[in-house]
Amino acid sequence: MEQRGFKTLIEADDIQHRVREMAERISVDYPESSPLFIVLLKGAFIFAADLIRNLSIPHEIDFITLFSYQNGTKRSADVGVINHIRSRIEDRDIIIIDEIVDTGHTLSRLIRTLKDHNARSHRICTLLDKPDTREVKIDVDYVGFTIPDVFVVGYGLDYRERYRNLPYIAELTPEIRKTINS
Ligand code: IMP
Ligand code: MG
């Protein structure tokens, strides 16, 4: 599907297929430890909703909002926490659900917190990975799709709070960004 300024990168059907595969993989890897999924808001809410509905293992779910000080599409290394996790972390197997790993600063902040609270293990599950823009080393355990260094929207990902509802992932071209900003 082609819309002015949008270039579809990943079709809705391909996302659904891949999310099912990821859930099956996680279900095999965690047969009985009842892992705690920590979902990064806001962007990962749609991915997480589809992923957990395809799990076949017992599990718990919690949410955290982290933010990086930013300016439009530019990220910074300064990451803050808005709401904290209330679930018990100690001795739990944690799976972080994120929608995209870009510089890695957000996740490295969260992983530090999990270590401080003595999690037994932690893994990262992300729909998208942008390895070319990484600034800190992060081990990503479950990746849906690896994408180049482009700004994407849809399936939970936004540009200035818009486009989260698109069922597919689209590249937001610099041209359309200019029209939105003008
Ligand atoms: P980080 O740079 O790895 O810390 O990523 C921080 C957050 O920036 C991600 O969780 C997303 O919410 C957001 N982000 C990074 N790249 C994109 C993008 O291409 N589109 C929309 N949001 C993005
Ligand atoms: Mg995010």
Which geometry do the CA atoms define?
globular
Which radius of gyration do the C-alpha atoms yield? 16 Å
What ligand molecules are bound, each kind once? inosinic acid, magnesium ion
Number of helices: 4
Distance from first to last alpha carbon: 25 Å
Give the strand tally.
10
Mean pLDDT rating:
91
- From the structure provided, what is the oligomeric state, counting identical versus distinct chains? single chain
The helix/strand order is EEHEHEEEHEEEEH
Strand order of the biggest β-sheet = 5-4-3-6-7-8
Largest β sheet strand count, sense and barrel closure:
6 strands, mixed
Which residues form runs of ≥5 with pLDDT under 50?
none
Percent strand equals 25-35%
* Approximate helicity band: 25-40%
- Pairing-aware structural class of the strands and helices? alpha/beta
